[in-house]
Amino acid sequence: MDFRYLPMTPEDKKEMMESIGIQEIEELFSDIPESIQFKGEMNIAPPASEHDLMKELQTLSSRNMNVKDYPSFLGAGVYDHYIPSVVDHVLRRSEFYTAYTPYQAEISQGELQAIFEFQSMICELTNMEVANSSMYDGLTALAEAAVLAASESRMKKKKILVSEGLHPEGFEVLETYTDGLGLVVERIPLQEGKTDLEHLKQEIDDDTAAVILQYPNFVGSIEDLKEAEAIIHEHKALFIVSSNPLALGILAPPGNFGADIVVGDCQVFGIPAQMGGPHCGYFAVSKKLMRKIPGRLVGQTRDKEGTRGFVLTLQTREQHIRRDKATSNICSNQALNALAASVTMSALGKKGIRTMASANVKKAHLLKEKCKKAGLTIVHEQPVFNEFVIDMKQPVREVNQKLYQQGIIGGYDLAMSDHTKEGHMLVCVTELRTEEEMDHFVKTLEGLV
Amino acid sequence: MIQNKEQPLIFERSRPGRVGHGLGDIDHTNEKVEDILPADYIREEEPELPEVSELQLIRHYTSLSTRNYGVDSGFYPLGSCTMKYNPKMNEDVARMPGFAHVHPYQPEEQVQGALEVMYHLQQSLAEITGMDEVTLQPAAGAQGEWTGLMMIRAFHEANGEKGRDKVIVPDSAHGTNPASAAVAGFTPVTVKTDERGLVDLDHLRELAGSDTAALMLTNPNTLGLFEEDIVEMAAIIHEAGGRLYYDGANSNAILGISRPGDMGFDVVHLNLHKTFTGPHGGGGPGSGPVGVKKELIPFLPKPVLQKTEKGFTWDSERPQSIGRVKPYYGNFGINLRAYTYIRTMGAEGLRKVSEYAVLNANYLMRRLEPYFDLPYNRHCKHEFVLSGKRQKKLGVKTLDMAKRLLDYGYHPPTIYFPINIEECMMMEPTETETKETLDEFADAMIQIAQEVEENPEIVQEAPHHTVVKRLDEALAARKPVLKYGDSNQD
């Protein structure tokens, strides 16, 4: 069979084999012991034509209920936001997506500059001094932040205190990352939907490497970073904030409150949900941690004629130089998605991001009011960005089944990660939800209680 | 087209009052945020994001793209990175709305199509690698390595063997190998390469023992050579009680030819953005699925995808699992592209991929052999290494030759890696390149070798035709400017 990705012709093959001095291609594999040569054909589906495969995959795609066709009230770390058309047009420029890590700076100025701009935008949003070129996602970035904090104490401080307002999968990832290194993750409970700072005061000690808060937190509330900071720094622990970067379009940024490390996920900026990945983590630190930040950093410099240019820099931090002394093994990151986020942030601009972030606040508020009017129970009365919790007093999976029948994608079932939260639905409203969709949602819920 | 040498930053194109978004009158409620949120929660200073029109934005990024070089621009023989063609169909599939716009927390019955693709991809990868089960969760190769090592750790601990804290890594290994071992809590130890360019078996025997957790290996190794003693190496490690980890960075050489599972490996990761055409994206996103043999299945990251009578479901009840390594279910968007590729090629096509990748590499190696030092004169696999020792004696470094290649319109090979080869150049042409391209590239390399002898300055001063000349990396590191508004000045 002929394959469109394989240009080898019989003539070329013959000429090439002659020039190497072999009769058969198999000779090139003669150093593979007979016993481990694979005989026969692998048991995978036969080659498919472009048309047939496209059709088959279209059928599979259409079997999924997608958030662009059905109104979604599902968030919990992955959000349905406005994606400007320009984003995909830029991503489709194949000079970007078919390149690799910009090792050869002179022919990679486009990518390097785009990353430099991304780093700058993340610093602006978080009000931090240094940001890297991206991480796999917000929650692995958070786990790496915890490891960085412990390594700052030369692994002497073993304790990471984490607010229960963190994304539940954040805990899971954090536990896996810290497990290999002998660190201990301890939870600080919530009180009325916010981190119990009194509890934090009791738990924090000189063995605490870092304290982690999510902002806004997983149940939607906006944490009091200022009060938390005073407690954390009094004990010389590092203050790590995991933050939705879109929320920082309207909320006071963590950098204003003395955060040492700020991480989060840029999925909110032009990156489709795509079943949970790839998204795009960001990682920002204060200047004193600049030489400890994981991942790639792009810096500005000059060429020998004085022209401005960009290079990968401070590489002595990274695995390919430090090898077993590295505190992070990250190599490939999410460069293309960082580009998507940059394009989106550029399209929004300093005014647009506030407009979009404010619309989330207002629409969440509107839906909350509608829920209350319909007699639904709001679990915590806290200021929120775009999520809050409704107590449905019945299993959320059943509620979601009813919503599904109405063509609505319901909220996150908090009982999935905490069985004491049976009936609690985490509802998300982005700028894309219309009042009509909200009314339909509320009416359906109203009919269930 | 002649470009301006300095490309303005998008911040420098910004003018107050311009917008590039189409949010419209999204803010139709009459309420003010100030009436909803307490005043001290609200940001006072606006973030200095650029204010540009849509056309300005497009011109900015289009202009940046023209200052970048991808596989679609030209030949990209970057060794160990498998810069093969990225099929356009894959891009279209990844953008289908039922794949691009599904949320990971939608109930399973709403996303059966996505789960089906994931399941079939897992099955295909298990067959290709000769393993028993595969997880798609790891985000990239390095995360796959760490995931695999954490599983090996859990395996030894479950067997009551807590003293296994060493991971053996060849001196030619990629830097992520020792780094992954370290972040998984192991101490990496280095095994030497012998004069054949293969792992020194005697040294391996010395190192293997009751403290050995695992041996990490790429096969073909980073010199592009097949570790022909692999069966014996596996026996040495297994007899010592350790496990074998396969770094799949070089799997483009072995598809349908020899499977890691049959070689004796217990854990395997694959870089779907290398062998399986997920685009490299300028440095990611990648995807690093991990396959394991039966005895390691209980330790797979959770949840694990299962096929049941009710359809595809997630199993989270995995008491021995190492836990979660990444939120949600891995880089689905990249996995979709890999699946599309595997389905396009089938077993027949994948075997041809490796045959032609290896033929291309050997052809290019033999064409260049008379002009550069070839440290290991034997058939290579999908890539090979040359040394620029001869040229260095004439005062021209491998770095200079790499920069000179830019003037000829090529992306240079990987240089100074592996670290055990002096003035190393590591070339991986891949199977998607034509003989004409290989010949033209070889001609350019030969021309450069001549320049080194006749006119070394032109090589030492290269590149001459790029948008910037050689950049001052020392300045960048000494006085870091990492964001707009910082300055290299004191």
Question: Can you put this structure into words, describing what you see?
Answer:
The complex is a heterodimer of chains A (449) and B (490). The longest helix of chain A is centred in the C-terminal third of the chain and has 39 residues, at 335-373. Chain A is 36% helix and 14% strand. Chain A has 2 domains: 86-343, Aspartate Aminotransferase, domain 2 (3-Layer(aba) Sandwich), CATH 3.40.640; 353-446, Aspartate Aminotransferase, domain 1 (Alpha-Beta Complex), CATH 3.90.1150.10. Chain A has 13 helices and 15 strands. The mean pLDDT of chain A is 96. The N and C termini of chain A lie far apart (61 Å). With 490 residues, chain B is α/β, with parallel strands linked by helices. Chain B folds into 3 domains: 10-66, no CATH class; 89-344, Type I PLP-dependent aspartate aminotransferase-like (Major domain) (Aspartate Aminotransferase, domain 2); 352-475, Aspartate Aminotransferase, domain 1, CATH 3.90.1150. The longest helix of chain B has 37 residues, at 332-368. In chain B, 59% of the residues are buried. Chain B: Its cofactor is pyridoxal 5'-phosphate. Chain B: This is Probable glycine dehydrogenase (decarboxylating) subunit 2. Chain B: Its EC number is 1.4.4.2. Chain B: It comes from Alteribacillus iranensis.
Short description:
Chain B: Its EC number is 1.4.4.2. By secondary structure, chain A is α/β, with parallel strands linked by helices. Chain A is built from 13 helices and 15 strands.
The number of distinct helices of chain B, counting runs of at least 4 residues, comes to: 16
Whole-Å distance between the termini of chain A? 61 Å
* Number of DSSP strand runs of chain B: 12
**What share of residues are in beta strands of chain A?**
5-15%
Radius of gyration of chain B: 25 Å
Figure out the total of helices of chain A: 13
Decide which structural class fits the backbone of chain A. alpha/beta
